[in-house]
Amino acid sequence: MAGSDFSVDTTGTLTLRGVTKDIDLTLIARLVDDVIEVNGSIQIVFTDWSIPDPSISGILVVDRGLLEFLVRFAR
């Protein structure tokens, strides 16, 4: 089924800056040639993870970011 996406909802544990939390996320897997690719993302609110406000004088940054990942499994 090359090129077809397979989606699964799962849970895991994520640690950022010494803060560990259980998370829920959706993983999407796809077979590309002989490689299995798995990707996903999770919204991160900085204060939930003790991440300091990245704003600097004159430049304001929102209080959240998107953590994205892609894992490739190949022989």
* Structural category: mainly beta
CATH homologous superfamily title: Lipid/polyisoprenoid-binding, YceI-like
- By CATH, the architecture is named Beta Barrel
Q: Remind me, CATH topology?
A: Lipocalin
Task: Report low-confidence residues grouped into runs of 5 or more.
Answer: none
Q: What does the main sheet amount to?
A: 4 strands, antiparallel
Helix content: under 10%
Radius of gyration: 16 Å
Q: List how many beta strands DSSP finds.
A: 4
Q: What percentage of the residues does DSSP assign to strands (E)?
A: over 45%
Succession of helices and strands = EEEE
The CATH top-level class label? Mainly Beta
Number of structurally distinct domains: 1
Pick out its properties:
mainly beta; 75 residues; 4 strands; Lipocalin; single chain
Question: Would you give an account of this structure?
Answer:
With 75 residues, the chain is mostly beta strands. It has one domain: Lipocalin (Beta Barrel), CATH 2.40.128. 0% of the residues lie in helices and 63% in strands. The chain contains no helices and 4 strands. The chain has strands at 5-16, 19-32, 35-45, 64-73. It has a 4-stranded antiparallel beta sheet with strand order 1-2-3-4, with no helix packed on it. A hairpin with a 2-residue loop joins strand 2 and strand 3 (35-45). The radius of gyration is 16 Å and the shape is elongated. The model has no long low-confidence stretch (mean pLDDT 92).
SSE diagram, text form:
Layout: E1 5-16, E2 19-32, E3 35-45, E4 64-73
